[in-house]
Structures are given as C-alpha cells and as structure tokens.
Amino acid sequence: MEIKDAIKKAKNNDQKAFKQLLNTYWDQVYGFQLKRVENENDAEDITIQTFSKAFDKIETFDEKYTFSTWLITISKNIHIDIVRKEKNSIKHALSRTDEEVYNVLDETPSVEDKLITEQNLAKLLRDIKKLKPHYQEVINLRYFQEYSYKEISEELNEPINNVKVKLLRAKKLLAEIIQKK
Any idea where the RNA polymerase sigma factor 70 region 4 type domain is (predicted)? Predict the structure, then answer.
C-alpha cells in the first residue's frame, strides 16, 4: 500500500493503514525527537503523543504537503508544549519529598504472573518483561486483564489514541523480540 493510499484509508479509520503509517514513520519521528531531547524515554513518549494526535486529526491533513513534514511539525509543537509546561512546574518539582523522588517500581512477579508461568506462558512473559514498563502495562491491561481501549485510557489517564499507538508499538516490539529467538 502506498503512503497516499494509506493516508486516504486512515482518513476512513482503517486500522491497517494507521499501522502502516506508524511503522513507516516511527523511526523518523523518534529520531527527530531523540536529537532534540537526548533521552530515549522522553523521545518515545513524544513520538507516541505525535502519532496519537496525528491519527486523531488525520482528516485535517492536506495531501499537497508531505506527511512526514506534517508529523515532524506536530512532534515539534508537542515538545515545545512540554518544555513550556515543565518551566511552569519547576517550583512544584523542587518541592517534592525525597520519598516521592526515590520511589522505585517493584518489578517482582505478582501472583498472577506466577499463575501464568505455571500455565506454560513463562516464555511469553519473559519476552514481555523485556519491553519498557509502559508497554508492559498496556499489554497487561489489554490482553491479560482484558480491558477495552476506553478502560485502558481511563486507567492510564491517557487519550484513547495514545493507548492504540502504544499497543501497536508494543506488539511490534514484542514480535521483534520473539523473532530474534
């Protein structure tokens, strides 16, 4: 499917077209942000927000422009907004207690993880654990706890499009991990 066709299909809410656009442009947008923020996690978060916003507003895309330029512009604007918000919240960040700052996520296996391991899903879980925590969480909510997109959106306090992009990306990364074996 060509990019122009994918964009037209995406405007009609075709999920395969969204996936193709995500796969085609992920590295470009992520690389752009990585150069700007010099932090992999922040670059990834901004890239997720970029695709979420782009997919949400895809009907506004003017096809006489380049799709990648449109995505980069969205990405740049999201980064600018984040920087502005951070400047406004410096006082709040400085007032955090040491306990809040050093609160580390406990990644020990839960009772559910042990049960799943006993059901011969240990290999899959090991592969899932190789993903970044926010991808692990969205996969867990969607496939193990069987949450709907809306429920995941409410649980994570994120827009539904962010959830969809994270799930697409998580599945792609998980498939790559599994194929490497």
Answer: 125-174
CA distance 32 to 79: 11
Q: pTM score, two decimals? A: 0.64
Classify 37 in phi/psi space as left (phi over 0), alpha (psi -120 to 50) or beta.
alpha
pLDDT in tens, 106-139: 566 666 555 555 554 667 878 889 999 999 999 9
Structure tokens at 116: 């799943």
Q: Which two structure tokens, joined as six digits, stand for 122?
A: 């240990």
DSSP 58: G
CATH T-level fold of 104-180: Arc Repressor Mutant, subunit A (1.10.10)
CA separation for the pair 131, 179 (Å, rounded): 14
* Total residue length of the chain: 181
| Domain residue spans of the chain | 3-91, 104-180
Cα distance between residue 148 and residue 124, in whole Å: 21
From CA 37, how far away is CA 181, in angstroms rounded? 32
Cα 130 to Cα 122, 170, 179, distances in angstroms? 13, 11, 13
Q: How far apart are alpha carbons 55 and 156 in whole angstroms?
A: 19
Instruction: State how far Cα 126 lies from the chain centre.
Output: 20
Does the domain formed by 3-91 have CATH 2.30.22.10?
Answer: no
Please state, in angstroms and rounded to a whole number, the distance separating the CA atoms of residues 9 and 40.
Answer: 31
The DSSP call for residue 62 is -
